[in-house]
Amino acid sequence: MITQELKLPPSTSGKDLKTNNNTPQKNNILSGNEKEQVSESYRKASFTKRHIFTLAGTLLLLIAGAFSVYLLQPQFQEMNLSRMNTVGGMILLALTSFLLIFRLSFLAYISRLFFRYKPVNSVTDEELPSCTVIVPAYNEGKQVYSTLLSLVNSLYPAEKLQLIAIDDGSKDDTWGWMKKAKEELGDRVAIYQQPVNQGKRHALYRGFKMGTGEVFITVDSDSIVEKDTLRNLVSPFVTNKNCGAVAGNVRVLNNEKAIIPRMLNVSFVFSFEFIRSAQSVLGSVLCTPGALAAYRSKAVRNCLPEWINQTFMGQPSDIGEDRAMTNMILKQGYHVLFQRNAYVLTNIPEKFSSLHKMFTRWERSNVRENLMMSKFAFKTFRDGSKSGTRLLLVNQWMHMITAYPLFLMMLVLLLLHPVLFISSTLLSILIFSSLPAFFYARKYNISEAFWAYSYSIFYTFSLFWITPYAMATANRRGWLTRELPQKK
């Protein structure tokens, strides 16, 4: 039993951490009221004058853009008429119309799937499988200590939980915090240290090789899990024999700090609770996130040699290990699901320099793994319907194929018609960002939902180059983040 208090979100307070992991089953499954309390940590948000000013400025800018479109109707009509008088203009009009129809149709399809989604309820203690939780850490400092404590205090039978933490050659005090956790937790956790930094994939590989559980769970070392997360995460393996992997529900841990985490917190809700819910209905979640994912150990062992030795354009793959593992499990014919009730809170970059590096790494991984997925998705890779999975992949390719044409079109319009381009772009943001904003408002609270608009403006005007750049540099290696600040 742990007596060390740990500062966590309201749902996992220091008092709650003193929970006996051998509690009888009737006390292990949270009641409906307690589940509401779990999500309370996502509803509370304080607003400073800077936050209020940012949101107010966002709304004023979008309203001004919409009003400008109304005032500039004659100029828009003139520009459209001039386009229709040229072959190039007609082609451009046809392409943009096709893209708009495709996007709206795909959104309608995803929406229909979303309303069919239901998370799997937690099974009983007796039914829960044995699990190996692997926590790779690199330059994480004290946060890895908090992560390990949150895992040990999960409502999961202690005798069924193997916890392995691996320091991947950190240059800071990460190993010291892992030893501190070991001193307090005893044989509940096993810690190991890589002699040199080899990358997250190799740290996970070591954990997979040592793991004895029926299910492998990977958790990032900058993350905190809710008390019922692990049991909710692995329950689909019990209820669905075809389940090969499960994605957790990722939320932002440091959303009370900088503006970037606040914006991404709203974006994550839409990405996970809407998009991945829909993908889960198809049994084809495209990526199990590194922050929290579970895999059937048999499926992992089937592809482990291929996964650890994966290359791209002759270079060893040291990024995108989560998407690669997901692809290889889908390829075996397994279903990949999403558990909306398996929450993990994770730290994300608070500065632009770190954020664009993270997004670049993600996009490079998407390029590589879309290519890999295309090799098996249009074959008979599993029983049952495969059209939905293929449509998800086609949508991924549409995003990539249109990256350069849209990028060039944006530059041309910005040079030739700057006022018309900016005003129409702001109107588009106001319209299309209303969906994630409304979704978040319905799920959590209205005030935070407005960050969806700020994030869309931020991404459109400062991160628009990520996908074209990632496609052009997809062969480059390197994690890009997690390095220690350089002393001057």
Automatic annotation (TrEMBL):
Q: Where in the cell is it found?
A: Cell membrane
Q: Where is there biased composition of kind Polar residues?
A: 10-31
Any idea which UniProt keywords this protein has? Cell membrane, Glycosyltransferase, Membrane, Transferase, Transmembrane, Transmembrane helix
Region labeled Disordered — which residues? 1-34
Question: Where does the Glycosyltransferase 2-like domain lie?
Answer: 132-302
InterPro entries, sorted: Glyco_trans_2-like, Nucleotide-diphossugar_trans
State the family it belongs to: Belongs to the NodC/HAS family.
The name under which this protein is listed is N-acetylglucosaminyltransferase
